[in-house]
Known about the structure:
Radius of gyration: 20 Å
Shape: globular
Number of strands: 15
Pfam families: Glyco_hydro_125 (PF06824)
CATH topology: Glycosyltransferase
Protein name: Metal-independent alpha-mannosidase
Order of helices and strands: HHEEEHHEEHHHEHHEEEEHEEEHHEEHH
Helix content: 40-55%
Strand content: 5-15%
Largest sheet: 3 strands, antiparallel
Number of helices: 14
Organism: Fastidiosipila sanguinis
Strand order of the largest sheet: 3-4-5
CATH class: Mainly Alpha
CATH architecture: Alpha/alpha barrel
Distance between the termini: 17 Å
Number of domains: 1
Amino acid sequence: MKIKELAKKITELIPNExxxxxxxxxxxxxxxxxxxxxxxxxxFVITGDIPAxxxxxxxxxxxxxxxxxxxxxxxxxxxxxxxxxxxxCILIDxxxxxxxxxxxxxxxxxxxxxxxxxLWERKYEIDSLCYPIRLAYQYWKVTNDSSIFTPxxxxxxxxxxxxxxxxxxxxxxxxxxERVDRIEEAGVLPNNGKGxxxxxxxxxxxxxxxxxxxxxxxxxxxSNMFAxxxxxxxAKIAELVYEDLELKExxxxxxxxxxxxxxxxxxVDYKDLGSIYAYEVDGxxxxxxxxxxxxxxxxxxxxxxxxxADDPIYLNTREFILSPxxxxxxxxxxxxxxxxxxxxxxxxxxxxxxxxxxxxxDENERKEILETIMNTDAGTYQMHxxxxxxxxxEFTRPWFAWSNxxxxxxxxxxxxxxxQFEKSLKN
Length: 427
């Protein structure tokens, strides 16, 4: 079945007429506006209004299609072709977050770091390496097609384990990053590009958040939580596909070290809420308490498989981040939710609203989130990056495919559309 045919069939299953108007544009956004087949069985997926492939964004942009892969050769080809491109990018430079289609030298080549002509940007973010693992693993689980795990994929995951191990002791890392022509922005690591000092914890260091803004303290908790999930997935791939018990053991040993670091350093008593997860820590007693709209976030931990939705520490954390105690939480006339240091004050992100709905177990909250999202699109039937909580006509990024895909995923979840689709095929 073609992707456009899928979209039409699924749309017809949605019982809410207003939601129907959103579904097809959001479901098809990545396919119609950001995807290019560049070789046989190889796809390049840009993020939208920036002509580069982010390892994170490109994975998230096709996530909503995964459940339907068994019914569409077009979806299978896209995901396998994207995975092939992502692996090629990781083998070029696992520290890079965004890549060009060719060795064009486009992007941020005045940055002081080890650039390659294929790189658009070289901000090291843990989640850039987690997302391609997650995408391939979930594709395998849905389709039972292990051919996505190529020999190059195995090299890439070994390289990822190597990198995460090096970054447990960042003082020994070769990675630095400076952007001297924009010294005041949140994209410049202090300390000659090494970032603020950290102590060993067992966790692995990250220079930047998934917002592409710099980490204040180098151990980014939601990204380390994501990494431990990725390492568990690597262990299963190693055992069941590659039959490589040494790789499995490497992955599980690193996972255990990260988990120990999280337990010892990331969980902190916060006022009257009890134990919550900090957003960033440095292993020297400093903690940053906030959450960011971009995923991985603390809000998204159950979605990523890092904790259960009813985990007590998560619930305490959720109470904190969905309150004015979190300085990136904004409330206004049209919406309340999480924004980002990456966008102006009082701007809530559609990604964060979709994620709040996807991680909620409260049907009233889920319904309210759905209505809020559909009432803040500025009449476009598309999602944006951030929008003004007091005037949704003011927004950033009119073309942001990840946000569209995530809202399509929320609609699929909210209306139980995978099950409804499968039933429709039997009738």
